[in-house]
Write a structure and sequence with these properties.
Helix 2 packs across helix 3. Strand 4 (about 190-195), helix 9 (about 200-205) and strand 5 (about 210-215) form a beta-alpha-beta unit. This protein folds into two domains: about 5-15 and about 115-250, 3-Layer(aba) Sandwich (Rossmann fold); about 20-110. Helix content is about 50%, strand content about 10%. About 35% of the residues are buried. The chain has helices at about 20-40, 45-65, 70-80, 90-110, 115-125, 140-150, 165, 175-185, 200-205, 225, 245-250; strands at about 5, 130-135, 160-165, 190-195, 210-215, 235-240. The chain starts with a strand and ends with a helix. The longest helix is centred in the N-terminal third of the chain and has 21 residues, at about 20-40.
């Protein structure tokens, strides 16, 4: 019997559209550029933008190994591609300020909840299930996501919050699922994970021995599923988050 449900965050509970990412990136880079200039470190904005893109590709090399980086590590990688800063040492006091201005835009302009996210999490809790969150953080670390969830009135529903930048492990590595279930004192066989990514959420949950629910609002026909690659075929697929209620009825 299922007694535990874990959720992915981005594009499962919280929106993360490409146009939003671009907007946040522009705001972050403008803030970084302004603070660097104020601190006497003259940097060309276009060079900073290019360093951001090159740094992001470098970070992806770590992420693709299912490992993670904190924000300062990401910033240092970015700055390593910036000729204007390559031979300069940035004091830790300034790095802390750069980190804060880099993270501020998403708090000032928070992304919206996915339709039905608040209601389904509230329903699941009311039904007595233990609830966890398993999030690959990317550019937004766990401490900022906690603040976002608090602002949205969501944080109280989760008994366990697992963020990849804090654990240094990313989905689909099953260890991030095991870590969360350990916090919840739950058995994988009695646990279900809901997420929108086949590789990260479905594959990761199945490798951890959990029931996988693929949130697929656009009803995309994925090649992995069409090829009947069983590692990527979810136990259930839903178009709307409220459809999870039907699945939970079936698994009682």
């Amino acid at each position: 019997m299922i007694d535990t449900i874990t959720f992915d965050l981005w594009n499962t509970l919280l929106s993360n559209k490409p146009q939003d990412n671009e907007r946040y990136k522009q705001k972050r880079l403008k803030a970084l550029h302004g603070l660097l200039e104020e601190s006497g470190l003259n940097v060309d904005f276009h060079s900073l933008y290019r360093a951001h893109e090159e740094g992001f590709e470098k970070c992806k090399e770590t992420w693709e190994k299912n490992l993670d980086l904190d924000t300062q590590e990401q910033l240092k990688i970015m700055f390593s591609f910036l000729d204007d800063l390559r031979f300069k040492t940035i004091p830790q006091s300034l790095m802390l300020k750069l980190e804060e201005v880099f993270l501020a835009p998403i708090l000032k302009d928070p992304p919206p909840l996915i339709e039905g996210a608040g209601k389904i999490v509230e329903h699941v809790q009311a039904e007595g299930y233990k609830i966890g969150l398993i999030c690959n953080t990317g550019r937004t670390p766990g401490r900022i996501i906690r603040e976002l969830l608090e602002k949205l009135g969501m944080v109280e529903y989760f008994r366990a919050l697992t963020f990849s930048n804090e654990l240094k492990i990313r989905k689909p590595d099953p260890r991030i699922f095991f870590h969360t279930l350990s916090q919840l004192k739950s058995d994988p066989a009695n646990s279900m994970h809901v997420g929108n990514e086949l590789k990260l959420d479905v594959l990761g949950a199945k490798r951890a021995g959990m029931i996988s629910v693929h949130f697929n609002p656009n009803q995309t026909l994925y090649a992995e599923i069409q090829s009947q690659d069983t590692d990527f075929v979810p136990n259930f697929s839903i178009k709307e988050l409220r459809d999870l209620e039907i699945i939970l009825q079936k698994t009682k």
